[in-house]
Backbone:
């Protein structure tokens, strides 16, 4: 397996780099970005935070807009940002922004035509970490975070691969995709009409019969235009409270769904993960 | 004069907002962005840093990518980011990225067809500050900064309106536009072939016979792809050293021309301006 370096930008003493590789899970070339803090070297491997972005995003949005690299450089934490779906002329797509390319929803699709490429759950949790850990000066200690569709992806990844991650966090996650318009559309396309298949990709459903989970932090803006219809943080909060789960849900008056919100609180998230990754 | 609020995002306790207004200097509608830190109120006015962006940019690049809002919120400093040229179907343009819309070069054009709209020097230094100071809870204390073409704009603005600003800073400025390909192309189009007219928009030329100027900070990446051919920092450095000018030029190994570089050192710039604006 070869990976091709596409770009390199020094930032805060470390390096932001983009790579292209051939994904055997997704059956297409995939781009990802990594930030290696100045502490990372072959003699000093660092832990990794995986960041999953939201609808329409690529590997670039978080790296450019979140203000996270400054904090990662200070903490000695690597960050990996995958793309949000398989891509390319050979990959099925849809004209809508919320299905197909840019909208993989971090599931393993079972339905045609999506099932040949749309296996982002395995890509993010299995194939990509193996590549990262065999290529870069990082340890196998990792945490996962994301925004919106990526917040959903991070929560579901952490709940289903709880031994793999140390902690999980989300901004404005699609917490209950089985019961919101974005989620119903995507899950019915990728997984079919049988809602029993959707449960494995629904954080609220996965948490319903749990009394414990990984340490988790969730931040939600109260003026988020998608809060009521799409994100269902109220339902997540009910399950968390009913089951006594270690998920800290914080609500922030006045903040919206944008990176202006994420940037405002990303330091708390990176610090939270650094604590669980043994950096603090 | 009415201005229309286009967007509002809470960030770091303050507000990032975009506005549209009719510019009488530029003869077209113009968009700008302002960040008002949490300290700003009708009872507590704050000073302003004007940020001028580079080729192809709008009001959005700096606000989204520089990581500056966190620092402005901490310091109690407002930031205003104008667009980089007049815009619209009625405004002359060129197919190239380095002339016309997105490439105003912060000059007052004298040549047709540019002279009806391309008066960014007066827009940035006169019309826009008057609007800002009559509309928002800010003082008339201001500093100016920018990147690349905007670094050129900031230096020239500060040198020619030295009583208006407290300090100036630039990342990777086009320091000597009269003697680089970008500058020669733009200045000959906007100002005509008479190079005597270019002097007033060339930081190196303006500094040649000065023995003092506003406090200035310039950061330059040593791996900037435009350093040798376009930016001419060596020439600026010679004039600064020969004339004993209070311009601190810093060079940074490994950094390029991108916002990954700007983000790495923007805290130094905002702190520098805050000191000269009496905030520290």
Residues:
């Amino acid at each position: 397996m070869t990976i091709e370096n596409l770009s390199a930008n020094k930032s805060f003493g470390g390096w932001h780099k983009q790579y292209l590789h051939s994904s055997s899970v997704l059956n297409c070339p995939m781009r990802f970005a990594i930030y290696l803090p100045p502490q990372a070297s072959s003699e000093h491997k660092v832990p990794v935070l995986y960041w999953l972005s939201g609808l329409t995003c690529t590997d670039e949005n978080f790296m450019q807009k979140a203000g996270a690299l400054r904090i990662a450089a200070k903490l000695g934490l690597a960050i990996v940002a995958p793309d949000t779906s398989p891509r390319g002329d050979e990959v099925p797509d849809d004209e809508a922004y919320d299905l197909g390319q840019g909208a993989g929803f971090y599931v393993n699709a079972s339905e045609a035509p999506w099932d040949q490429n749309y296996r982002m759950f395995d890509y993010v949790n299995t194939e990509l970490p193996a590549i990262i850990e065999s290529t870069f000066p990082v340890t196998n200690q990792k945490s996962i975070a994301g925004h919106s569709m990526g917040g959903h992806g991070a929560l579901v990844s952490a709940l289903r691969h709880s031994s793999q991650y140390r902690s999980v966090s989300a901004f404005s996650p699609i917490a209950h995709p089985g019961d919101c318009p974005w989620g119903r559309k995507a899950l019915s396309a990728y997984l079919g009409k049988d809602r029993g298949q959707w449960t494995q990709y629904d954080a609220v459903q996965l948490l319903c019969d749990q009394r414990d989970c990984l340490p988790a932090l969730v931040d939600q803006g109260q003026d988020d235009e998608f809060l009521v219809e799409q994100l269902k943080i109220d339902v997540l909060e009910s399950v968390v409270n009913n089951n006594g789960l270690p998920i800290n849900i914080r609500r922030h008056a006045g903040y919206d769904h944008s990176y202006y919100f994420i940037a405002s609180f990303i330091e708390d998230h990176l610090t939270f993960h650094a604590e669980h990754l043994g950096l603090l």
Chain B has one domain: 3-276.
